[in-house]
Amino acid sequence: xxxxxxxxxxxxxxxxxxxxxxxxxxxxxxxxxxxxxxxxxxxxxxxxxxxxxxxxxxxxxxxxxxxxxxxxxxxxxxxxxxxxxxxxxxxxxxxxxx
Length: 98
Description:
Layout: H1 2-7, H2 10-13, H3 20-26, E1 36-41, H4 47-61, E2 65-70, H5 76-92
């Protein structure tokens, strides 16, 4: 994440519990029933990172992983627009545009 580079050198984060790749690699889906919802804006500054992570999440979490692409940036308008669908996903277990 760009802001993390302001405080830490990438080699200080890689392979540690704050590294998404590390977390996915070490997560045991047989121990936890964690579900993951990822919504990325079409103009999101982190879109390329999310797209790189998408396959690893899909493999690790299987049907407990939902990916959505929505118009927007990495900002409150996108998050506010996605909030009703995310709440539905949390309660009902399925993603549905609301």
